[in-house]
Amino acid sequence: MKSVLNFAHRGASGYCPENTMAAFRRSIELGATGIETDVQMTSDGQLVLIHDESLKRTAGSSRLVKDVTLEELQQLDAGSWFDPAFEGERVPTLRELLELAAPTSFVINLELKNGIIQYEGLEEAVIEEVRRFGMSDRIIISSFNHYSLVKCKHLAPEIRTGILYMEGLYEPWEYAARVGAEALHAYYYAVIPEWVAQAAERGIAYHPFTVNDADVMRKLIDAGVAGIITDYPDRLAELLHDAGTGG
């Protein structure tokens, strides 16, 4: 039986402030075999891991990521909004995560957050950093901006890409083949066994998001998905262990 990748969504974000080194480290402890995170760019061109374009929700500033330097960003507290115990956590850089993951066998899903703000040179910068660590074979680049995915595939054909979408995409495996993507990162409502099988026949993997309910996890495992993105990697790790499909 094939293994199923256990992607910790923004790290172990059910237990730690999302997209922080604490969340990434915790995901390793909880049995994840992959990490999903979001990449944006500061005003001085540094790659940082944060979901929202605004810093308000997770770092308490009304400014946008694109308008602050890395130095300014790392003065902000990105942990205490979640729990006072995490006070002092910072918005990490992509390099920090790759340094953590490099000695492991983790697969890293980098979501480019360039659907609302078009970060010039984001694709090139991410690919350069990945190649610097020699991790091209352990990276999946995903985005809701599919033009960006095509650009990434042109720049780095050796790096896998994953199409992010919500629901209603007709024959997404055909679309994936058209844009050169190896994976479908679909909202889990848009995943049924028949579609998983048709995609698999064409070499396209399903990695649905964001799945936190154990019963839904079981159904997706039974459907044959290649990976699941979850806030609670320990729940998924337990199910995969019981099913003998751990990554």
UniProtKB/TrEMBL annotation:
Domain GP-PDE: 4-240
Coiled coil stretches, renumbered: none
Xref: Gene3D superfamilies: Phosphatidylinositol (PI) phosphodiesterase
InterPro entries: GP_PDE_dom (IPR030395), PLC-like_Pdiesterase_TIM-brl (IPR017946)
Pfam families tied to this protein: GDPD (PF03009)
Matches recorded under SUPFAM superfamilies: PLC-like phosphodiesterases
Entries under PANTHER family matching the protein: GLYCEROPHOSPHODIESTER PHOSPHODIESTERASE, CYTOPLASMIC, GLYCEROPHOSPHORYL DIESTER PHOSPHODIESTERASE
Official protein name in the record: Glycerophosphoryl diester phosphodiesterase
Organism for this UniProt entry: Paenibacillus cisolokensis
